[in-house]
Design goal:
Elements (H helix, E strand, L loop, with lengths): L1 H24 L13 E6 L2 E5 L8 E9 L6 E6 L3 E4 L8 E9 L11 E3 L14 E7 L2 E7 L8 E9 L11 E5 L3 E4 L8 E10 L11 E4 L6 E3 L4 E3 L4 E5 L6 E9 L2 E10 L6 E5 L10 E9 L13 E5 L3
Parallel strand pairs: 16-22
Antiparallel strand pairs: 1-2, 2-5, 3-4, 3-6, 6-7, 8-9, 9-12, 10-11, 10-13, 13-14, 15-17, 17-20, 18-19, 18-21, 21-22
Length: 324
């Protein structure tokens, strides 16, 4: 019993000491030292890159970056957990002033660093656009091509020029310029034809009018919708129907979808690769057991590149399983 009372008293004593220590030390109100060594690593093409020495405080959290168009009035433009910061989409003819501060885990902010300045004049043309992917579509929205590519890393991109031709390895020019886009996506609906392969290239243009090299070329072709043969709409089938439809010119493959609703609840799909020598394609059902008296819905899609991107899609038909 004496041992228990002794231990309990020791715990209370330690707790009291801990509270007293907290009261003595209090919360951290000491800010970090001002960051040192701030300099402009690069200034040009509407972009400024700043670098500085890392602070040595163990409780450092991040740095704040302040910018102004004179050396008196500044506002916060960003934060960084590293000793580097990139400021983009700046004016070519404006001189910008910067300083940084350090912030610790308690939210204490240091005094400002020294001030540096830079003028990001237009020097180089944009980098070549990369990753252009073109996908043709024939669906209820109409016939069109979706184009997407990686956003340029340059800090001064104004727009992208979209070029299109009917033959490969073409040279971009005013005669095949079809549109511009301010983003790295474009939908082409201009004077398109079925079974015509179209070739595309992209050129990036900066705010000063300098143009990049053309992107690598990509292409696709709009396919006709598959014509379904059987099962007919509102028809009666057995447990193992055979799906028949007409071959689509230039299709790389097909996907048969079977569902329990016109708008979803897919229970089976079959991917068929390559062109068939026959004018019609027949595929036996190999999915889960169908229920007597239930109505099912089927349709066929085509693809010209990957089976993950549908090119054209047929109407939806239904049939009912009826077995006596």
């Amino acid at each position: 019993m004496r041992n228990f009372i002794f231990v309990l008293g020791l715990i209370i004593l330690i707790s009291g000491c801990s509270r007293q220590m907290d009261e003595i030390t209090g919360p951290d109100k000491t800010p970090p030292s001002p960051p040192q060594g701030l300099y402009v690593y690069f200034a040009g093409d509407g972009m400024v890159i700043l670098i500085w020495q890392n602070n040595r405080e163990p409780d450092l959290s991040f740095y704040k970056v302040y910018r102004g168009t004179d050396s008196i009035r500044f506002h916060l433009v960003g934060k960084s957990t590293e000793n580097i910061f990139t400021d983009k989409e700046l004016d070519y003819d404006t001189t910008y002033f910067y300083y940084i501060t350090a912030v610790d885990n308690s939210g204490n902010e240091s005094e400002p660093s020294s001030i540096v300045s830079a003028k990001p004049v237009n020097i180089y043309p944009p980098t070549q656009p990369f990753g252009l992917a073109v996908f043709a579509h024939n669906d209820p929205d109409g016939i069109y091509f979706n184009l997407n590519w990686y956003k340029n890393p340059d800090g001064d991109i104004k727009l992208y020029k979209i070029f299109r031709a009917n033959k490969p390895n073409f040279t971009p020019g005013d005669s095949n310029l079809i549109a511009t886009s301010e983003t790295n996506f474009f939908r082409d609906t201009l004077n398109l034809s079925m079974n015509q392969r179209y070739y595309y290239k992209i050129v990036a243009v900066d705010k000063g009018g300098l143009e990049s090299k053309p992107s690598f070329e990509d292409d696709d072709i709009i396919l006709k919708t598959p014509e379904l043969i059987e099962p007919n709409d509102n028809s009666i089938t057995g447990y193992d129907p055979t799906f028949k439809f007409k071959k689509v010119e230039n299709a790389n493959g097909y996907i048969i979808f079977l569902s329990t609703s016109k708008y979803g609840n897919e229970i089976w799909k079959k991917i068929i690769y390559g062109q068939n020598q026959s004018d019609t394609i027949s595929v036996n059902y190999t999915g889960p057991s169908l229920y007597n008296g239930r109505t099912y819905f089927w349709k066929v899609a085509t693809f010209s590149k990957s089976e993950n991107i549908i090119n054209s899609i047929s109407e939806t038909r239904n049939f009912t399983v009826s077995v006596r």
